[in-house]
Amino acid sequence: MDIRFPLGLMFAVMGALLSGFGIVTASSPIYRQHSLGVNVNLWAGLGILAFGLTMLWLARRGTR
Amino acid sequence: MRLQWIDYLIILIYFGFVLGIGFVLKRYAKTSTDFFLSGRSIPAWITGLAFISANLGAQEVIGMGASGAKYGIATSHFYWIGAIPAMVFVGIFMMPFYYGSRARSVPEYLKLRFDEKTRGLNAISFAAMTVFSSGVSMYAMGKLLQLLLGWDFTMSVLLSAGIVLVYTYLGGLTSAIYNEVLQFFLIVAGFVPLVLIGLKDVGGWSGLTARLATESVSRGFAPGAMTESWQHMGSPASNPMGVEWFGLVMGLGFVLSFGYWCTDFLVVQRAMAADSMNAARRTPLIAALPKMVFPFLVILPGMIAISVAAPSETGLARGSEATYRLEASAQAGVPSTIPMLQRSLIPPKLDDKGNPVVGTDGRVALDYDLAIPQMLMHYFPAGMLGLGLCALMASFMSGMAGNTTAFNTVWTYDIYQSYIKPGASDAHYLAMGRAATVFGILISVAAAFVARQFNNIMDLLQLVFAFVNAPLFATFMLGMFWKRTTGHGAFTGLLSGTLAAAVHHGLTLPVGAAVGFKGGFLGQVLHTYPSEMAQNFWTAIFAWTTCFLVTVLVSLFTEPKRDVELKGLVYALTPIPHDKNLPWHKQPGTLAVIVLTLTVVLNLIFW
């Protein structure tokens, strides 16, 4: 099994979840309380999602 | 504090993937070589990341964050002096013997190169050390989760042990390696945002420098003592570590670091699983690239934690941090006035009764190990907090899994197959490997509970293992580069090196420490070191030198092995692999030059 499949899938799922949560909670006070007003769930989530999708794409390309 | 549903969901997703990988990989673990060495089929980039992750256990993450808060940027010496040179050395010079000899473990290499007794000594002490470290890792995790989240200690230990057991039992080393790669990226995903937000809060590197200048002046050092790594190493009195450059370079940079990276089967096993000699040699070099930048991920959070004012003093403007502390304190039965004593994000250390501990210098001692967890809880809202905690749990678990896979291999090949039941079928040894996984984890769980009851036993064991490990690199170096070295020489050298370490430790004491585990137990204190770290570095230097001299002396008076028996095991009798016709990124030599140059540059930037 190519490790990039589970790796990419896990990060894609987590990234989608986090960025979705970030969008839903965008106006919540938690970001001012904790992360200097930065919506860290949205931005980090998008980064993680992009990494996950890249890994999945590489894995797909690798098996063909 | 309580986690939100999203935090739990992220942790559950991780558990699901970890177990899923185990079940899928079960199909591929058909022979003992598959189970113990991943069938020697893993590409270099994966073994490289696993090589670094096996080392990046949670104690490393938490400990380096703690040291960052205690010592500042000088903690990077554990990376730029205490790891990178040794990693380059193991890839360039030692891998040809480890991989080329087809030895299946480090003790087995010692058997091929020297003799049975040297292997036995190394195998037994290593096996004991791995199950013990795995237990300590579980104990630390159980304690941390109890303090932070109020989770039940027994439940945390059993749950993590259960998950590690399932996936290492099913997939063996491949499972462990795959999960180490997941853990690596989880740490990066969790810690990069943490450091960015933290840096933004303190005003970037220059803001951090200014804040830490105040901190280090208040401790009686020069303003730059926590943000300049080499300038204050001239004398132990002028830096928070309490070490001088010679002890640092020789003790940490040479003896301890080479001893760990070049001889510890926990990391070497990852390189042995590589799919070719070239991949095995590149494994530690690829690992060195992330290792080089890890100080920014694990040391910086500690430095930020000590320089950010505690929220309780800033009128709770920044949220519910004090509530977390209060809640955690209430669970531990601690009086709720504690947060008032807290100047930075790092809370004071509490004794069994919940009172703050006052150090020998008359100041309240801080619980530095909480630097990283406090950073996560301070800067991360629900969501990313789950991911950050998940990364920490992943490193605890992969630390356990790494020790378990190293243990079951050494147990099966070097103890069971060698002394208990030689000549059985491969299927028999595969079954034994799986059984060893089960009882190895059971012993570790037991060790975790013993650690909870009797902290002293753990201190004692850790000390004994430090004595056993200190001289190891002298044996390997002589064995690999001086073909005259004999088995008798290696064995007596190792024993006397261990003895020298114990004697040195027993006759010295760090300043302000009580006689006991910290030293001086031989009844007399001949020398007092400025810090525990300085004492450790010099214990290692004494052990290494003794082992080196005794091995040489005894070897000169005993019969060496003949050249034919040493083919592929010593430098002079091993063909050096040629890779000049490969592209540059596949040449170990080129990678080594790049890695070393970058390390020098980093040292100069933070000089």
CATH domain class name of the domain at 5-210 and 225-232 and 248-308 and 367-453 in chain B: Mainly Alpha
Oligomeric form: heterodimer
| Tally of separate helices of chain A | 3
Given the helix and strand composition of chain B, which structural class is it? mainly alpha
Domains of chain A, number: 1
Shape of chain A: rod-shaped
Q: Helix count of chain B, per DSSP?
A: 22
**Overall helicity of chain A:** over 70%
| Portion in beta strands of chain A | under 5%
Which blocks of ≥5 consecutive residues of chain B have pLDDT under 50?
A: 313-331, 334-340
Strand order, biggest sheet of chain B? 1-2
Average pLDDT taken over every residue of chain B: 88
C-alpha termini separation of chain A: 14 Å
Keywords, separated by commas or semicolons:
heterodimer, A: 64 residues, mainly alpha, 3 helices, 77% helix, B: 607 residues, Sodium/glucose cotransporter, two-stranded parallel sheet, 2 strands, 68% helix
Would you write up a description of this structure?
The complex is a heterodimer of chains A (64) and B (607). Chain A is rod-shaped. Chain A has helices at 4-24, 30-33, 40-63. With 64 residues, chain A is mainly α. In chain A, helix 1 (4-24) runs antiparallel to helix 3 (40-63). Chain A has one domain (4-63). Chain B has 607 residues and is mostly helical. Chain B has a domain at 5-210 and 225-232 and 248-308 and 367-453: Sodium/glucose cotransporter, CATH 1.20.1730.10. Chain B has 22 helices and two strands. Chain B has a two-stranded parallel ribbon with strand order 1-2. In chain B, helix 7 runs antiparallel to helix 8. The interface between A and B is medium-sized, with 31 and 33 residues.
Strand and helix layout:
The complex is a heterodimer of chains A (64) and B (607).
Chain A: H1 4-24, H2 30-33, H3 40-63
Helix pairs in contact in A: 1-3
Chain B: H1 5-25, H2 32-37, H3 44-55, H4 58-71, H5 77-80, H6 84-100, H7 106-113, H8 116-149, H9 153-202, H10 204-218, H11 245-263, H12 265-272, H13 277-307, H14 321-331, H15 371-379, H16 384-420, H17 426-453, H18 455-469, H19 472-481, H20 487-507, E1 508-510, E2 527-529, H21 532-556, H22 588-605
Parallel strand pairs in B: 1-2
